[in-house]
From TrEMBL, chain A:
Residues spanning the signal sequence: none
Top-level division of the source organism's lineage: Bacteria
Species assigned in the record: Marinomonas communis
TM segment ranges: 12-34, 76-102, 123-149, 195-219, 240-261
Membrane topology: Multi-pass membrane protein
Protein name: Peptide/nickel transport system permease protein
Automatic annotation (TrEMBL), chain B:
The organism of origin for this protein: Marinomonas communis
Alphabetized SUPFAM superfamilies for the sequence: MetI-like
Record's protein name: Peptide/nickel transport system permease protein
Entry-linked InterPro entries: BPD_transp_1_N (IPR045621), MetI-like (IPR000515), MetI-like_sf (IPR035906)
Organism classification: Bacteria, Pseudomonadati, Pseudomonadota, Gammaproteobacteria, Oceanospirillales
Gene3D superfamilies per the UniProt record, alphabetical: MetI-like
GO cellular component: plasma membrane
Membership in a protein family: Belongs to the binding-protein-dependent transport system permease family.
Location(s) in or outside the cell: Cell membrane
Automatic annotation (TrEMBL), chain C:
The reaction(s) this protein catalyses: a dipeptide(out) + ATP + H2O = a dipeptide(in) + ADP + phosphate + H(+)
One GO molecular-function entry: ATP binding
Domain of life according to the entry: Bacteria
InterPro entries: AAA+_ATPase, ABC_Ni/Peptide_Import, ABC_transporter-like_ATP-bd, ABC_transporter-like_CS, Oligopep_ABC_C, P-loop_NTPase
CDD domains: ABC_NikE_OppD_transporters
SMART domains linked: AAA (SM00382)
Name under which the protein is recorded: ABC-type dipeptide transporter
Organism: Marinomonas communis
The enzyme's E.C. designation: 7.4.2.9
Primary localisation category: membrane
Gene Ontology terms describing biological process: peptide transport; transmembrane transport
Family indicated by similarity: Belongs to the ABC transporter superfamily.
Cellular localisation: Cell inner membrane
């Protein structure tokens, strides 16, 4: 397919893809291969990076292995990012599809509903939700999903609104196809490309959100995450800046890789909208 | 201002009010959704042992009455800006939030203006120098700042400019115990403002720069730009008289939509820099498990976003003559 | 006489990956002072390329390879940009196809016109204002004072094109380049704009390079004609010579594809019960209503009644906004009408709900306008055609078998079954669209502008196919069409609509030869080149008519 070819020719996007692939491998197999619990105190605290052969990135304020923390953190970041995005898509796509396809008062009600969620400051809402339902990996994922679906709904609605009067959709209506068939087989496949692009960017945003929540102390107390590591090192930033520096770089690299891949996907899937057809 | 414009704004006001009402109802149910006695939840852990205070809460919010009645009491209190009293500070929630509001407005306002100004400028330059080094530089910088966690950036900025270089303060809004007045105080606040505003603004600078660049490039391909070139205009004139204004329309919309994010970012920045605004208050409420205060801050910040969206709508109405018809 | 502008051996290279190497190759022509030169060609012929090269509007990726464009002693191809700018908008100016997007939506009309003076002259603000105002009067805009402060979105398409013309003629240029300026307009508006261009051209002795795909327009205004085919200049000559005695086979093909504006005698159909009866159909749209503002109400169909019989082609003609498309969509129940009766045979379907309607769907089918939008890009041709019968309950294998038969019927190869729409040309896709409609064995075929998106040479083929199929399958065809030449050729009867109402209905020949309603008269009078190929001209044109019929 041309999309895949266009994507593989885009070096920047492929770089992002390679980084993500590596991160996924680390997230999946890292904990099996690198035997270190992120919570166990293994050495004296504040060993700087590269000073100790066994603990490559040193130890934190309580003598825990920083590298182990990073590996486990990759797992939770990617997991929360992916799962919350999937949930957000599961909420946003049907809502947007119904609003855009049926229009009228269905659209009016669904879009007012979406507007409320879009107006609310999303990070503040996530904080409130996680705080009230007690921090856990479930409440965090759920809260992130709840604050991220409105853009999906709006995008899908826009696509459906534009496509529902396309002549091939009208032809399907004349054929006597059911609404379900028209939505799923005629319109949805043709509006997938912008959804895919948005989804890749949403994973990035979700990872940022998750790290911000853990930084504020709203992380799952059972799980080591990058945001938590930075938050825990905040008070000792004068003595051991690397403790907050290293996990931050991990977050930035992951999010950057996702953004690069997302832009590459955008160029490959929507050649008209991206900068490819320059004058 | 024409009647249509006023009606348009009136319509937006009603919509904003509805949004706030929905958020209020949502808040109400959130408190009840939290595990445990709602009075205890509202009082937070700190107030959990004081029976007298709990009783006071129950009466004020009608907590022993049926649910619909409680909702009614909650909403009518809210309309009168009564959000209850926090146990720890022994102060009305609303007053506490309003105490902290100016600091947040200063921070977010400064960050917003800064990011809009620099972001638009960078976006225009990047689009002008399309596919040259300046474009690549701006694009890469925007990508990196877009991907960097705000709180981390804030910490690194504090570390570098404050701890390492010792140029700027990284804590609070004023020098503690200095008791400055007049212009000296202004300068003191400004120096305290630089780091938080710059870090909060950087993310949004990246957002606006990317948006402006894309929008400029897209607008350049429109037919009326061809008309302008065919008139014999210089490229610069085409850009500034025809492309820029049209290209900025989506940026205005985006700026309106980003207001909520700016508040969210303020929670993180204020936490890192101990900036005494409502974001910091939210963090404190979180730390003290003072849910009533937490939801109060949440509601007020939502109201700020609604207000900000309204302002953007009015601005949009002024810059785009088509809006009255196409509503 | 010395030519004003000379195009010599001009070749323009396309970027890599385009469908051909050069946009145009070795183009040579001259533009004389005060003449109207029409550059004609189908889409993709490269007819606009030279004009864009003259105006410096070529995209960066497209470069002039060889050749020169000489104007006033300068070669515009190699002229420094700052000098070329002094010519643009001043000595040579241009108007474009889409009046809707060619004006800056955020700037007042007066400012956009005044800009031309601002760039090229030293006029004061007051002088600019006066000159602009008099220009608006010259181009015949109503209430010019008020127009000055209007924004483009407050103007109609025709009015915007007048503003563009005012802007282009502001400094009385020697050359006006008009790139399909009337293509996006309705026929009566087109006639007015053509008249305006011609008047102003005569008044100021401007030379006009008029780019068009429409030979009717050529017949209306051209002095000389250049014909382009796939980047090659295939014919150049005086209007009469090219139109009535074309030399190149491509020109011949194009001209013979233009339907003559004369309705042939058609055999009367035997009396039969109507397959479709529409009685007092009404449909109103309301737009723009908000919380405080009243919606604007538009009557798109107002008391519309007609009958359609087997074996008959009924034309529904009118300009945009006449309601012809609304009526056709109400009839096939893609739109809900407000009131009235729609009978398929004897069965009323106007008010049926979705479930009750399902069995009637197959009896009335539609062919759509845009061949690029009417086929789902993610389905194979086979799926597209077979979908309908499958939805109506036919087993998949049988439906695919039927799809294969239908492909043969519309003269497409059977190998098309497993291929995707993007592999086919516009005309081929339209054949697929017809096959899809026929998959239900309908009694009635509604063709909604089914040929208007196609090039002229392809139009004739599709019309021919529809006519053949109609006779073979004894269909009733409701033909929604804005092109009166086409209507004259293919319809047994026509209905003329204006603002949602039927203003005239009758046998085609009669309506065209003795129109009764004023609107019909003005419509027919507005057809560009009405005198050409109308039976009133030379003997040669008559033989062409026969060839077409």
């Amino acid at each position: 397919m041309n999309v895949i070819r266009a994507l593989t020719q885009n070096k920047v996007a492929m770089f992002g893809f390679a980084v993500l692939l590596l991160l996924s491998l680390i997230a999946i197999f890292g904990p099996m291969l690198y035997d270190g619990s992120p919570w166990k105190m293994v050495q004296r605290p504040f060993i700087p990076p590269f000073a100790n052969d066994r603990f490559l990135l040193g130890t934190d304020t309580l003598g825990r292995d920083v590298l182990a923390g990073l590996i486990y953190g990759a797992r939770i970041s990617l997991l929360v990012g992916l799962v919350s995005t999937v949930i957000a898509l599961l909420i946003g796509i049907p809502l947007g599809a119904y609003a855009g396809y049926f229009g009228g008062w269905v659209d009016e009600i669904l879009m007012r509903f979406t507007e409320v969620f879009q107006t609310v400051p999303s990070f503040a809402l996530a904080v409130v939700l996680v705080a009230i339902f007690e921090p856990s990996v479930y409440s965090i994922t759920g809260a992130i999903a709840i604050v991220s679906w409105p853009p999906v709904a709006r995008l899908v609605r826009g696509e459906f609104l534009a496509l529902r009067n396309q002549e091939y959709v009208l032809a399907a209506k004349l054929n006597g196809q059911s609404h379900r068939n028209i939505i799923l087989k005629e319109i949805l496949p043709n509006s997938l490309s912008p959804i895919i692009v948005l989804a890749s960017l949403m994973v990035a945003t979700a990872i940022l959100l998750e790290s911000s929540l853990s930084f504020l102390g709203l992380g799952d107390p059972e799980i080591m995450s990058w945001g938590y590591m930075i938050g825990a090192a905040k008070t000792v930033i004068r003595q051991a800046w690397w403790l907050s520096f290293i996990p931050g770089v991990a977050i930035a690299v992951t999010v950057l890789a996702l953004n690069l891949l997302g832009e590459g996907l955008n160029e490959a899937l929507n050649p008209k909208l991206s900068g490819k057809r320059e004058h | 201002m024409s009647i249509q414009t006023l009606m348009y704004i009136g319509g937006r006001l009603i919509k904003g009010a509805i949004v706030l009402l929905v958020i209020a109802v949502f808040n109400f149910f959130l408190i009840r959704a939290a595990p445990g006695d709602p009075a205890k939840v509202m009082a937070g852990e700190a107030g959990a042992t004081d029976e007298l205070f709990l009783q006071q809460l129950r009466e004020q919010f009608g907590l022993d009455q049926p649910l619909y009645y409680q909702l009614w009491v909650y909403i009518s209190n809210l309309v009168q800006f009564d959000m209850g009293i926090t146990y720890r500070q022994q102060m009305p929630v609303f007053d506490l939030i309003m105490d902290r509001m100016p600091a947040t407005l200063l921070l977010t306002g400064a960050a917003f203006l800064l990011s809009l100004l620099i972001g638009v400028l960078a976006g225009v330059v990047a689009a002008q120098k399309h596919k040259q080094w300046a474009d690549s530089f701006i694009t890469v910088a925007a990508l990196i700042f877009y991907a960097t966690p705000l709180f981390w950036l804030a910490m690194m900025a504090a570390l570098f400019f404050s701890v390492y270089l010792n140029w700027l303060p990284s804590f609070g809004m004023e020098t503690v115990g200095a008791n400055l007045t007049g212009f000296d105080r202004f300068i003191d606040i400004m120096t305290h403002l630089i780091l938080p505003a710059a870090t909060l603004g950087l993310f949004f600078t990246a957002v606006y720069a990317r948006m402006t660049r894309a929008s400029m490039i897209e607008t350049t391909r429109m037919d009326f730009v061809k008309t302008a070139i065919a008139k014999g205009m210089t490229p610069n004139r085409v850009t500034y008289r025809h492309v820029l204004r049209n290209a900025l329309l989506p940026v205005v919309t985006l700026a309106g939509l980003q207001a909520g994010q700016l508040i969210g970012g303020a929670v993180l920045t204020e936490t890192v820099f101990a900036w005494p605004g409502i974001g910091r208050l939210m963090f404190e409420a979180l730390f003290q498990r003072d849910y009533n205060l937490l939801l109060g801050v949440f509601f007020i910040s939502s109201a700020m976003v609604v207000l900000f969206n309204l302002i953007t709508d009015v601005i949009y109405c002024v810059v785009d003559p088509r809006i009255e018809l196409s509503k | 006489m010395k030519p004003l502008l000379k195009v010599e051996n001009l070749s323009i290279r396309l970027p890599k990956g385009a469908d051909r190497e050069f946009a145009i190759t070795n183009v040579n022509y001259e533009l004389m002072p005060g003449e109207i030169l029409c550059v004609v060609g189908e889409s993709g012929s490269g007819k606009s390329m030279t004009a864009n090269a003259i105006m410096g509007l070529l995209p960066k990726a497209i470069q002039v390879e060889t050749g020169a464009i000489t104007f006033d002693g300068y070669d515009l191809v190699s002229l420094e940009e700052h000098r070329a700018r002094k010519i643009r908008g001043n000595r040579i100016s241009m108007i474009f196809q889409e009046p809707m997007t060619a004006l800056n939506p955020l700037m007042r009309v007066a400012d956009q016109i005044g800009e031309v003076f601002l760039i090229h002259t030293e006029l004061s603000k007051k002088q600019r204002h006066e000159r602009t105002l008099s220009l608006l009067k010259d181009v015949g805009l109503p209430d010019p004072e008020k127009m000055m402060s209007a924004y483009p979105h407050q103007l109609s398409g025709g009015q915007r094109q007048r503003v563009m013309i005012a802007m282009a003629l502001a400094l009385e240029p020697s050359i006006l380049i008009a790139d399909e300026p009337t293509t996006a307009l309705d026929v009566t508006t087109q006639a007015q704009i053509l008249k305006l261009i011609k008047e102003l051209q005569e008044k100021h002795n401007t030379a006009v390079m008029f780019i068009t795909h429409d030979f009717g327009v050529v017949a209306e205004i051209a002095d000389r004609v250049v014909v382009m085919e796939k980047g090659q200049m295939v014919e150049l000559g005086e209007r009469e010579a090219v139109l009535n005695n074309p030399q190149h086979s491509y020109t011949k093909k194009l001209i013979s594809a233009v339907p003559p504006l004369v309705a042939p005698e058609r055999p009367l159909l035997a009396e039969s019960a109507p397959v479709l009866t529409v009685n007092q159909l009404c449909k109103t749209y309301s737009t723009g209503g908000g919380w405080f503002s009243k919606p604007r109400i538009v009557k798109a169909a107002d008391d519309v009644s007609f009958e359609l019989h087997r074996g008959e082609t009924l034309g529904l003609v009118g300009e945009s906004g006449s309601g012809k498309s609304t009526v056709s969509r109400c009839v096939v129940r893609l739109l809900e009408s407000d009131s009235g009766e729609i009978l398929l045979g004897d069965d009323p379907i106007q008010a049926l709900d979705a479930k009750a309607l399902a069995p009637f769907r197959k009896r009335i089918q539609m062919v759509f306008q845009d061949p690029f939008a009417s086929l789902n890009p993610r389905k194979t041709i086979g799926q597209i055609i077979a979908d309908g019968p499958i939805a109506q309950g036919m087993p998949v294998a049988q439906a695919m078998q039927k799809a294969a038969e239908l492909l043969a019927l519309v003269e497409l190869p059977a190998t098309a079954l497993d291929r995707y729409p993007h592999e086919f040309s516009g005309g081929q896709r339209q054949r697929v669209g017809i096959a899809r409609a026929l998959a239900h064995d309908p009694e009635i075929l509604v063709a909604d502008e089914a040929i208007s998106a196609l090039d002229v040479s392809v139009q004739a083929q599709i019309l021919d196919l529809i006519e053949q199929l109609k006779q073979r399958l004894n269909l009733a065809v409701l033909f929604v069409v804005h092109d009166l030449r086409v209507a004259a050729q293919v319809c047994d009867r026509v209905i003329v609509m204006q603002k949602g109402r039927i203003v005239e209905a009758g046998v085609t020949k009669q309506v065209f030869e003795q129109p009764r309603h004023d609107y019909t008269k003005s419509l027919i009078a507005s057809i560009p080149g009405a005198d050409w190929r109308s039976g009133k001209t030379t003997g040669h044109a008559k033989t062409l008519e026969k060839a077409y019929a």
